[in-house]
Amino acid sequence: MGVTLEDQIPSEVYDFASEIGRRGPVTVVGGRTHWEVGGLPDPQAREVFAPSGVWSHEPEEMTVRCGAGTSLKELSDQLAKHGQMVPLDMAENATVGGVLSVGRSGIRRLRYGHVRDLVLQIRHVDHEGKVVTSGGPTVKNVSGYDLCRLLVGSLGRFGCIAEVILRCLPIPETTRWLSGSADPFDIYSKLYRPSTILWDGDQVWVCLEGVVSDVDAESALLGLDEVAGPPTLPAGRRISLEPKSLKGLVVNDTHWIAEIGVGIVHTDTADVGWQVAEPTRSIMLDLENRLDPSGRLNPGRQVVEA
Amino acid sequence: MQISTDAKLYADLAAVLGDRARSGDFELGLYGKDGSVLQGQPAIVCLPLNTDEVRQIVAICRQHERPFLARGSGTGLAGGAVPVGNPVIVATAKMNKVLEVDLDNRIAWVEPGVLNLDLSKELSPLGFHFAPDPSSQQVCSIGGNVANNSGGPHCLAYGVTSAHVMAIEVVLPDGNVAMFGDLSPEPPGYDLRGLFVGSEGTMGIATKVAVRLTPNPPAVRTLLLDFADVRDGAAAVSAIIAAGLIPAALEMMDKRAIEIVEAFVNAGYPTEADAVLLVELDGLPGGVEHGVEVVRSVATRHEVGNIRVAADNAERELLWKGRKNAFGAVARIKPDYYLHDTVVPRGKLVEVLEKVYNIADAYDLIAVNVFHAGDGNLHPILAYDSNEPGVLERVHAAGRAIVTASIEAGGVLSGEHGIGLEKRDYMGMLFSAHDMATQDLIREAFDPQGFANPLKVLPSGSRCSDSFHQHVPEGAWV
């Protein structure tokens, strides 16, 4: 073959690997939009920044390759020039690597799925300062173990995401938000593939996307009023529940908004911990130990309670 | 020596399973193969009924220091279910119950031996289906789909198996039972569920799977487009996607495929065409009609011949019958075939297709192409007669050349069949030694001694801990 595997890795990725180096605690800084998730980083840790920039966007492949430090605004501005998007749905100043490391889906998950399903390839820097590639550049790929999914939501404990290739989607012809007082489960049963159904126990907000005639037809089924967009979500705690347990949901003494059909509840109380059952927990801790024996990558962050 | 060891192993397994532990020559021969051309030798075949029996089988294997291999329907094409290291086969065929359909959560709990199409048929009256639809869906199992992260024509719009699995109960290689994922959208901890899907049985045995249910689309349109030049057909594929359309499926067949399929199913495929595209659009009626118009206008710009729109469900099923029976139809030209699976960028389809024809010519083989064009997933079929001396060597050499051409075009080793044994020694074309060592380090967290389906996926020596290295099956060109 003409080029070696190493030749395909951009120099910015190697620069990031050098910055991380082989020793000492490091913490990757993105847009700081979810800085507190999993606990604050060890104050001794050296701050490092992943490379940024949309390095290639091929509209006919519907894929985009960018540095993990690229802001969502830069990414979406670039893709919008060709009528495409990656529905990561977080703050504009959040970075791609940050969104993936935190691993939380945006409010259109009901239609577009989890953010991890948008990832095709990840290059990360491991605890030895070496670059590791997993996944592949094509929209479909089962070559080797799916490390990309393991890295999404890992808060950088297994490695620092340097470069990603993401799957793009066409921007829908219309996006329409509707709201009113209604039974959200009744609404869910009437719609084919809504993008979002939010509910605060009284009011419902629905997002429909697609061609105008379909959005008009589905809107007509609901008897809701058109609104500018979604409500502001409470930014405290995020609870993950089986979708059906949202029926009859009671959350005491707090403002909450639930994502119907998904199972996320946003509340304004503080975030708390969670437990992973054995023996799954032991495997997770073993993976942490194997992939970062000295615990130098993003120390302080906890995905699994030790 | 081997025989007395196996006798004790068999006695221990039979104590748990009775006559569902088998060691007859017929069964051992049958379970020595899968859908690939490779063959191995299992020690004993077990047919457990439930998680607890699987757990006991694994525990007994551990006592005897014997590897084990989970097997679904054995339709895999990469040798993932071919036994290496004289393992105990854990066949999930009798674990075939749909345990619960939970419409409020839009999931179903199923046992691994449930067949893919049986599940969708059972869900159909409820208005739902399981989205992954490999060509083998009449016979392949959900457990096998999980092991291989299977795809199918409709994965272009709906995603592969990983996006449709919420949770998996797994008997780990140490005999413990774990749950990866749950029915909530963001389970705590790392995504071991996502790692397990596609791990080809090397991280444990799936014993229950919670699969997502996808609503049946309110409207479906299926179109057959024919082209006098395969290059125009391939260019139309890229142009359809670039126009912002993601069809539910976008399949391509070349001239030879059209001819043999038409002779087999009489679906009215245009045998004079150089290539056809089978395009399916689904969703709400407005979006579907919009999609039909986009496909028409793009195809017209790319020199399309006829555009046939299926008038009803019967015609739609007939068009799909041709596509789904293409592999069987190859038997009309040669008794054997080798089905490849690589992915290239859509924009490189024409270039790589031409290389595939040239490679087949160079090795004196017949290439037939029927594939998932929409996601660049090539499936070249090399047709041959295994009675010809030396033909398998040519088939393997041509296969390697096709994989090399795909990787050089910026593609990957496998789109949906997996790595198994077939492609594990090609992994170095796509990954560095350090990439593979990292993958093996992760596998070892589940199975430090390598008891679960040993020697698959990663080349031997990735981490210098391959205890079964010496047992490479006959016919494997490792």
Brief overview, please?
The complex is a heterodimer of chains A (306) and B (478). With 306 residues, chain A is of the alpha+beta class.
Describe the structure in your own words:
The complex is a heterodimer of chains A (306) and B (478). Chain A is α+β, with helices and mostly antiparallel strands and 306 residues long. In chain A, 21% of the residues lie in helices and 25% in strands. Chain A contains 8 helices and 16 strands. In chain A, the strands form 4 sheets. Chain A has a 7-stranded antiparallel beta sheet. A 5-stranded antiparallel beta sheet of chain A has the order 3-4-8-6-7. Chain B folds into 4 domains: 2-91, Uridine Diphospho-n-acetylenolpyruvylglucosamine Reductase, domain 2 (2-Layer Sandwich); 98-215, Uridine Diphospho-n-acetylenolpyruvylglucosamine Reductase, domain 3; 219-327, Alpha-Beta Plaits, CATH 3.30.70; 334-408, Alpha-Beta Plaits, CATH 3.30.70. In chain B, 35% of the residues lie in helices and 20% in strands. Chain B has 16 helices and 20 strands. A 7-stranded antiparallel beta sheet of chain B has the order 15-12-14-13-18-20-16, with helices on both faces. A 5-stranded antiparallel beta sheet of chain B has the order 5-6-10-8-9. In chain B, strands 1-2-4-3 form a 4-stranded mixed beta sheet. In chain B, helix 1 packs antiparallel against helix 3 (51-63), helix 8 (230-242) packs across helix 10 (285-301) and helix 13 (349-362) runs antiparallel to helix 14. The interface between A and B is large, with 83 and 92 residues.
Structural descriptors:
heterodimer; A: 306 residues; alpha+beta; Uridine Diphospho-n-acetylenolpyruvylglucosamine Reductase, domain 3; 2 domains; 7-stranded antiparallel beta sheet; 5-stranded antiparallel beta sheet; 8 helices; 21% helix; 25% strand; globular; B: 478 residues; Uridine Diphospho-n-acetylenolpyruvylglucosamine Reductase, domain 2; Alpha-Beta Plaits; 4 domains; 16 helices; 20 strands; 35% helix; disordered C terminus
